C-alpha cells in the first residue's frame, strides 16, 4: 500500500482517497483502519457469514434482527438469514437506522408500519406482517426516534 501526502492550504476540508483494485480490497482497507465507508450511502451493505457461505444484503432491506441464543436471524425483504454473531456488534454498526425494542430484537426504524397498544404485550409494533412486542425498558428508544423524526 502507498500513502501520498499533499498539502493544499486552499481546500476547505481534508480529504482521504483510497484507490483499490477491487471492492473487497477497498473494504479490507476500510476495516483495517477503522474508517467509515462514506461512498456507500444509499447502497450500504452487510456481508454476513452463514453456514452456507457469505450473504450480501442491503441494510435498507433488513426488516429486523432477532437474537436467539448464539445466533442472529436477519429478517429481510427476501427472507430470513441465520448468522452466528452477538447482537451488540450489529447494534453499534447499525445505530443510525436501527433501534432496540427488546433485549433480543433490533428493528429498522424505516420499516415500521404501525405502533399500537396490545392487551397481552403492552406496546407492539408492526413490520410488514410481523407483530413485535416492545419492552417497557426500550419504549423510550422509540419515543426518542419519533421525536427526532418529527423535527426533520
How would you describe this structure to a colleague?
It contains three helices and ten strands. By secondary structure, it is α+β, with helices and mostly antiparallel strands. It has a single domain (about 25-150), classed as OB fold (Dihydrolipoamide Acetyltransferase, E2P), CATH 2.40.50.1020. A five-stranded antiparallel beta sheet has the order 5-4-3-7-6. The mean pLDDT is about 85.
What is this entry, summarized?
The protein is α+β, with helices and mostly antiparallel strands and 152 residues long. It contains 3 helices and 10 strands. The protein has one domain (23-151): LytTr DNA-binding domain (OB fold (Dihydrolipoamide Acetyltransferase, E2P)).
Amino acid at each position: 500500500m502507498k500513502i501520498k501526502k499533499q498539502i493544499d492550504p486552499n481546500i476547505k476540508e481534508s480529504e482521504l482517497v483510497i484507490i483499490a483494485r477491487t471492492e473487497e480490497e477497498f473494504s479490507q482497507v476500510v476495516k483495517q483502519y477503522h474508517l467509515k465507508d462514506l461512498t456507500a450511502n444509499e447502497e450500504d451493505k452487510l456481508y454476513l457469514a452463514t453456514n452456507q457461505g457469505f450473504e450480501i444484503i442491503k441494510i435498507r432491506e433488513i426488516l429486523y434482527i432477532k437474537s436467539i441464543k448464539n445466533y442472529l436471524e436477519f429478517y429481510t425483504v427476501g427472507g430470513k438469514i441465520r448468522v452466528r454473531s452477538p447482537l451488540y456488534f450489529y447494534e453499534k454498526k447499525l445505530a443510525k437506522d436501527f433501534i432496540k425494542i427488546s433485549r433480543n430484537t433490533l428493528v429498522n426504524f424505516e420499516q415500521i408500519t404501525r405502533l399500537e397498544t396490545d392487551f397481552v404485550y403492552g406496546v407492539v409494533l408492526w413490520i410488514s406482517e410481523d407483530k413485535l412486542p416492545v419492552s417497557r425498558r426500550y419504549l423510550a428508544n422509540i419515543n426518542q426516534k419519533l421525536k427526532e423524526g418529527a423535527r426533520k
